[in-house]
Amino acid sequence: MYEMRFTADLVDDHGAVMAAANPSERGVSMVTKLLARTYRLAVFINVGRPLFLISRVDRLEPLALRWARALAWVVHKTLGRRTPTSVGDLAQEWNRLMPEPRSTFPVVAVDGDTAFVEIRIRCPLRGTGDAEACWRSMEFDRALMRASGGALVVMQSQAVTGQPFCKLAIRRTGADFSDLPVAHPRWRQRG
């Protein structure tokens, strides 16, 4: 059973809900605080499920990309934006923007201008061979990194390998990824 709780800044001393000066601020504030409390792996997977479904349909690519960018915007709005100063900081920022438990999104290594991270959750695309759908759904992660001053590519995808993890590389915006293996040629085009 779900319990509805109001945040302290929207409830007066007697428990009555107060109106914010700007109704849209009240709505954004309540949604932001609710998301901050509920941004966990199960919620992430369930909210992302439609993204994975539409990512499998080529002609729905524009919708999939917009959906992924919208989800990334909500995460940034909820958790706040930071400006990392190094590639290692970019990787830590990516990890911070992932849902709890963040141990399923580890930063594996930082080597020069590249940070290597993994996604260790069961992807709905695992074993499908659909690298295009992977590329579309990972727009979420690319959008998070763009907003933070970075870029991201998938080096190994669960969709292609069937393995229980994906391997990603993070670099600064505009960096060249041509020296790294990628899960699909499209990763070379847009990083």
Topology at a glance:
Layout: H1 23-38, H2 41-55, H3 61-79, H4 87-96, E1 107-111, E2 114-119, H5 131-137, H6 139-148, E3 150-156, H7 158-161, E4 166-172, H8 186-190
Antiparallel strand pairs: 1-2, 2-4, 3-4
Helix pairs in contact: 1-3, 2-3, 2-5, 3-6
Structural account:
There is one protein chain. The chain has 191 residues and is an alpha+beta fold. Helices cover 45% and strands 13% of the residues. A hairpin with a 2-residue loop joins β1 (107-111) and β2 (114-119). α2 packs across α5. The radius of gyration is 18 Å and the shape is globular. The N and C termini lie far apart (43 Å). The model is unreliable at 1-25 (pLDDT under 50).
Top keywords for this entry?
191 residues; alpha+beta; globular; 13% strand; 2 domains; Muramoyl-pentapeptide Carboxypeptidase, domain 2; disordered N terminus; four-stranded antiparallel β-sheet; 8 helices
Low-confidence stretches: 1-25
Principal-axis shape: globular
**How can the largest sheet be summarized?**
4 strands, antiparallel
What is the helical fraction, as a range of percent? 40-55%
Per DSSP, the total helix count is 8
**How many beta-strand runs?**
4
Indicate the mean pLDDT.
83
Rounded to the nearest angstrom, the radius of gyration is 18 Å
User: End-to-end span in angstroms?
Assistant: 43 Å
Class of secondary structure makeup: alpha+beta
Number of domains: 2
